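Reopening this ticket.

The earlier resolution said the output was attached, but the attachment link was broken on my side. Pasting everything inline this time so it's all in one place.
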Amino acid sequence: MNKKVKNVTMLVLIGGSLLLTSCRDNKNNEEEDTQHEMNSEEHMDHDNMMDDDSNDSDMMGSSAKFSDDQTAAAYQQYAKIQAALALDNPQDAKDEAKILVTNLADAEATKALLEPTKKISNSDDINVQREAFSELTMKMGAVLEGALVDGEVYKLYCPMAFEGKGDYWYANSKEIKNPYFGAKMLNCGRVEETVK
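Inline output:
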């Protein structure tokens, strides 16, 4: 019996170390500890930041300029949804998605984003929201294509998302704030592409 306990313990330790190793496949390994500390502080200040419009540009850190206002507004709301999911806050994700739904109703250029955004705005379940965010991200890629006139947006990838299938999201910085795992694995991911 004692041998079985040792074997199970060993398997758990090996599995845990493999999980951590796969999520640390990031070119910025040296900055990871600093990012984790910053993310912890941001998590504690989340409520204040989401309510204060003056902090939006600092929190989102976007230097990207878009070819039209509709795309710029849609991407800004997308980034707010991403931030809310990374902070494990389904209510803020829902609220930000509702704003995006309203903006998309009159926007022909970004109408493809409407269906997944409605799914986020109509759910209180963060897992449902994260699945819809995956769909939103896929459609956001088509909207962003050729829409940037200045600055950069980063396409990030988490190999562990959705039971190891992996998934993408867009962000304003290379700093990893994983919307698919939130606090569980906030820094899991890597920069896959720079959209210019």
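Reporter confirms the inline version is readable. Residues 15-21, 25-60 have pLDDT under 50 and may be disordered. The first strand starts at residue 65 and ends at 66.
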